[in-house]
Structure formats: C-alpha cells, structure tokens
Amino acid sequence: MCKEILKFVGGKSNIAEAYHCITRLRLNVRDLSKVKVDEIKKINGVLTVQVLGKQVQVVIGPGVDQIYETFCKVAGIEQHAEVDPNEDDQVKKNQMRMISSP
Question: What is the extent of the structural domain holding 37?
Fold first, then answer.
C-alpha cells in the first residue's frame, strides 16, 4: 500500500512533508499535477482521497498511524507527530484569506 501511494503521489521528490491525523495520511506535495488521485483511490485499504491546496489527504481510517510509520520508512522521509484533525478548518480559512486578499 505504501509503495503504491508513494508512486501515485509522484515519488519521494514530490513530497515536501508527511503527517497524519486520526484517520488520514496527509502529504504536502510540491507539484499537484504529478498526483494521480484516481489511482490512489483504487488502492486496497484507501477509503477516499481529498485534496486541500497542495495537501493530499489519503483517508485510511483507524490504524493510519501504523501506515504512516511504514510510509515514512518506505519513502525515507522524516516522521512528525500526529496533527489535529481540525487542521482542515485552518487550511480552508487560510485558502479563503488568500482568495479574498487583493
């Protein structure tokens, strides 16, 4: 699963940072055009995928912390602490500010 996710988000070089919350693997990507959302959705164990700005959220459900740990090892990237699931609201607010700014 982790190798497939890595492949369809454009590889290690396309990941700026990786986090997780209670149910989602959150990947901040450099180039969204390299991400194959429909292919990620087809991976066994992936419930759905959401994109907020340049963050790709792979919804996995409970147990995502174990997937996250494996994903970071497979990708060779640094692990971070679990993030607050309410971060989505903050991301949306920041996007709205950027859109409404002159």
Answer: 2-100
